[in-house]
Structures are given as C-alpha cells and as structure tokens.
Specification:
single chain, 232 residues, alpha+beta, 7-stranded mixed sheet, 5-stranded antiparallel sheet, 25% helix
Amino acid sequence: MSIRTIVETGSTNADLLHLAAHGAREGEWLRAERQVAGRGRQGRVWESPAGNLYASTLVRLRAGDPPAASLALLAAVALHEALSLYVPGRAMLKWPNDVMVDGAKLAGILLERSGDAVVIGIGVNVAHHPVLPDRRTTSLAAQDCAIGAATLVEVLADVLARWITRWRDEGFDVVRRAWLAAAHPVGTALSVRDGETRLEALFDGLDADGALVLRLADGTRRVMHAGDVFLP
C-alpha cells in the first residue's frame, strides 16, 4: 500500500484509471489537496475546496473474487468504520454508499472500472461542506472534529485493506451484514428517485447481491439496483 499526495488535479479517479492502464498495482492511493473536475455519482459535480479529502485507490479483480459491484458496499462499510472513529455512534450508511450524520451527507463514494481495475474514489467533507438545494450536508469540522485529510486517508487505507481481505476470504455476505448493521433500520421511510420515477416506500433490507429492497404501501416488495435515495 502506498499513498501519494498531489496539490491539484482534475479528478483522482481519472488519474488512477490512467495509472491502472499503465500497470499500477492494487493498493495504490492518490490524494489531491484540491480537484478541479471532481465527479459524484451519475455525473454530478463534486465540489472540491482545499481542506477536504479527495482520494482514490485501486483494486485489481482476481479469479474467485466476489462480484465487482459489491465493492461499492465494501467501500461504504470501510469508510463508515473509519469515520466512526471521529464521530462515534453518529455516522450511518444510506444506500448504496453515502455516509450520513444526523441525516446530513458527510461523505460519498464513486466506483469506476476498466477491465480488471476498479478505482474507488472517496470524498469526505473534512473542513467544509457545500450548501445544496436538495439535500443536507455536513463536515467533520461542523461536528467539532479537528482531524485533517492527510491523517484520515492513512486511517482509511488501513481499514479498507482489512475489509478487502475479508471480502476475499469470507465472501460478500460478511460485507452485507456489516452494511446493514451500519445503516438506518428496516422500516425506515425512504424516497427513491430513478430517472423521472419517484417512489415512497419503507426500507426492507438488501438482497443477496446488495440491491436495495423496498416495501411499498400495498405490501409488495421492489428490488432497486440504481436510483437516488433520500431520507425524510
């Protein structure tokens, strides 16, 4: 495992995908003090002022690994564990991999794949948090935590490496159980937007592959593999 820090880049994910195509090894991390073209899920712009954490790491898929898509929940579990060291008992996961504190978004994850290379991009609001029209946000500083991004990435790298080992040795279900333990409880009201469709339903867990399971008002269950999830 190695962590390299640069002052500024467009996107650490884009940089690491390029490095992966030229032989970068699993466990390499790239952290930028500032990004000028950061991205969130579904192509959203990720605001990137100096002081927050913008980092990406590389996983090389091997024969016999659990499905690559399950790395999204694995990364969420690892990030939740690392952040819980600084906001103990207050961080919570929202499907698929947002970390929330008191209903406000603290951190997010973006996975991108090229061949056997999966890049896990992680953004944490350490010193600042954006003001958004459609969702609440927070930062570690707003939670009276003085940790810096350089220290946080070292802690996160250790935690993530341990979870990748468990994922390979024990299978995806150990990750799934850990994710459920860190998330809002079954029965929580959720609003899910998938394109132009919006559903109001209750959280009913995850299926065996990690997809979101909803309980609709008529009692039927619906499995969602994509969509934006909002807490009330």
